[in-house]
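Feature request, filed as a ticket because there's no other form

It would be nice if the structure record came with a short human-readable summary line next to the tokens. Right now we just get the raw output. Example of a typical job, pasted below so the devs can see what we mean:
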Amino acid sequence: MSQYRHGSYVEERATSLVTPVTAESALPVIVGAAPVHRLPEGTAAPVNEPRLIADMQEFVSQFGAPGPGDDTAAFTLYQAAEVYLTRYNVAPLVAINVFDPAKHCTPGQGEGAPAVPDVSLITENDIIGGVDAETLQHTGLALAEEIFPRFRLTPGQILAPRWSSDPTVALAIGAACKDICGHFRAAGIYEVPDEVTRYTDVPAWINDNNLTDPDLLCMFGHCRYGDALEYGSIHLAGAIGARDASTEGIPYWSPSNSKLQCEGLAHAGKPLHLGADKAAYLNGQGIVTGLNMIGGLKVWGDQTTAYPGVSDVKDSSIPIRRMFSWVGNTLILTSWQYVSNPIRRRMVETVQDTFDIWLNGLTGREVILGGRVTFELVDNPTTDLMSGKVRWHVYLCPPQAGRELIFILEYDPSYLSTLFGA
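Raw output as currently delivered:
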């Protein structure tokens, strides 16, 4: 066609600012066992297949519900869904079932009797999972890699109730929280085994098993609800989800001092009634627990398990660590559209201005105390720019949790003058 034009024309230019694509802050990815053997006959059991669940009815339709004779507590995914979706009223969650009735079963009694599904045959290796050498399919905790490609949602929390009290599983949770899909970061939650009977022995157990990780939270204590004991990691995840929901999905508020939806705590088969001093001792060792002080039983603790060994607040403080992960995930999601674009001044300024305005908005809402984005020569040597590497420096200051509120009382004798009138 001829390039000669005669008339009026319109040309459009890309907007110099883009809307940030914010990451999910608290989406839980939960690995465990579901009563899939109770699904209707002919229904394929979802084994090592992540499912996005919005309510309890959807969970039961996809994973089943415990039946007569079942050990309800053994089906950790059912418990997690019930607590998270109905008690804390937060949704959605991602459930990964590793219970395979065809694999985890015992021989039936009598000749020709069918095998009996046995959830107790699940092992730590089933929970940890990995990549199958033949099929190259992910299993267990390794399926965290597939959450974003499947659902376009970034994991916010990773947990394996009941199993996370095993150090190998807890370490695997910590590993699963890092470089998800090669880019994203989440928080993991693990529990303390009943074998560690005294609260004063918990810090040594954590250190001996190398479970001091900025991306891990340790929950001490199971939660009692009626006659049932529920796993503490589920309740901590629910409290985090409920808190984030109240702050428009921005994780700048610590889960500490938020309500636990249970009637009490227990550990090692005994009721757990920690005073403020004992809870503070655990908190000072990077351990979260529950405290019944003012306003009922609440989450208590602001520190990740990296504390006190790591003093950098971005790694030791739960709200600051989660804010850094959330901001980092958001930066990746938003800037992805500019990958492979020509490195030009316009692109550099568009990215910088987009995030500067976003951070200014967060500052105005007091979600952060301040933040800015710069493009600096010191961060961008010529050789890196030549190879296609571009760096923006993001400065960020989320608010720290108010750990100690101190009032100084002093007797002031000058007020004795009021005895003599005006």
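Something like this underneath would help us a lot:
The chain has twelve helices and 18 strands.
The longest helix spans residues 345-364.
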